[in-house]
Write a structure and sequence with these properties.
188 residues, mainly beta, six-stranded antiparallel sheet, 12 strands
């Protein structure tokens, strides 16, 4: 029964997103159109899936390397965490992210980066839109992100869902010379 419910949740989320995907042109990047990727992991018996666009650091017109944080991605403004369609999170079981319980289902993830303070991950109940949700009123929560410097520069925006050895997992976002992450647990 849980497997059927999970499959139906995923189908519903993809169905909601499909009409807008077909209506919007994809943004060109250094490799043509920004590729899209789905990253997924089973964390404590729960599949967590994220689908997002993967823009490059290089300007698609000039090939010049762009400043990402505080440049292409301005501080203090909502950013879609990728390119093209909104970033989609799907969970089969409730997650606890920060102090917020995220019920099973599909959500839009976006970010509000901060240059000198704490950046936030926004979890929106609105799915299927292009880019960032137009209204914050449908945000389930905004949670703090941990910011760390990367040893190697990351040319293409990359997200990962990873298992934490002590239980739960991490959602990670890496680009340029910075990684943002947030821990989560599965609520049984």
């Amino acid at each position: 029964m849980n497997t059927l419910k999970s499959i139906l949740t995923i189908i519903a989320a993809l169905t909601l997103a499909s009409p807008l995907v077909a209506q919007q042109p994809r943004v060109a990047s250094s490799g043509g159109v920004s590729p899209h990727e789905t990253t997924s992991a089973v964390i404590d018996g729960n599949r967590v899936t994220v689908t997002y666009g993967r823009p490059f650091s290089k300007d698609p017109k000039t090939g010049a390397t762009r400043k990402i944080w505080g440049g292409l991605v301005p501080y203090g403004k909502a950013w879609r965490m990728g390119s093209d369609e909104a970033t989609l999170l799907i969970t089969q079981q409730p997650l606890v992210i920060g102090e917020t319980t995220v019920p099973p289902g599909a959500y839009t993830l976006y970010m509000v980066p901060d240059g000198s303070g704490t950046s936030k991950l926004a979890i929106s109940k609105t799915v299927g839109q292009w880019g960032v949700p137009v209204s914050e009123k449908n945000d389930l929560a905004r949670v703090d992100l941990k910011k760390e410097a990367l040893e190697k520069t990351v040319d293409q925006f990359t997200m990962a869902v990873q298992k934490n050895l002590s239980g739960g997992g991490h959602l990670k976002m890496m680009w340029e010379n910075t990684q943002f992450s947030v821990a989560f647990t599965v609520k049984h």
